[in-house]
Write a structure and sequence with these properties.
Layout lengths: L7 H14 L8 E4 L6 H9 L4 E6 L4 H11 L4 E6 L15 E5 L7 H14 L5 E6 L1 E2 L7 H12 L7 E2 H11 L1 E9 L3 E8 L1
Parallel strand pairs: 1-2, 1-4, 2-3, 4-5, 6-7
Antiparallel strand pairs: 5-9, 8-9
Helix pairs in contact: 1-2, 2-3, 4-6
Amino acid sequence: MNALPCSPACERNREPILQCIRPLLADRRRVVEIGSGTGQHAAWFAPRLPALAWLTTDLAENHAAIRAWVEASGAPNLEGPLRLDVRDEPWPELGAVDAAFSANTAHIMPEPAVVAMFAGLGRRLPAGAPFCLYGPFMEQGRHVSAGNEAFDADLRARGTGMGVRDLGWLLQVAAVAGFDLEAVEPMPANNRVLVWRKK
């Protein structure tokens, strides 16, 4: 496993995230992960949620890393990676999915892509389906820590549309896509899991 592409942040946050999402996904059959990145989260979660099929997706350039983690995991309930750019329409066929998960994507995607992610999931998830979104977020226009503020400034300085998103803005985006905010779960390192529920 040492030779696999590794994100130290994934190693640190995977267990707290799992403890948060496990009860939310207990009655689900198949979850789509938007932006699987290195594939580490999927490879950690799938064996520990054996009743749930986990579909990995990302841009094509990340597939080699995801595929390596999928193969190393050996979990029979781990699928993909499927090529997905949330800005493309139509999306590729996902098959039947009744939950969604995404980690550290909303601040990396430009705002139109965040809107497209919610809209795409809103068209494909059934009523009552959860969408668990992990990452750093602003609340009422303010950062929740000095570290998040510095991180946001660094992202925005790159000029590619990245930036920590405000919960108020996300509420508007989600409402248009047919989601209600069910919970804001605190996570280590001043992150959150936002639990959205399809209306």
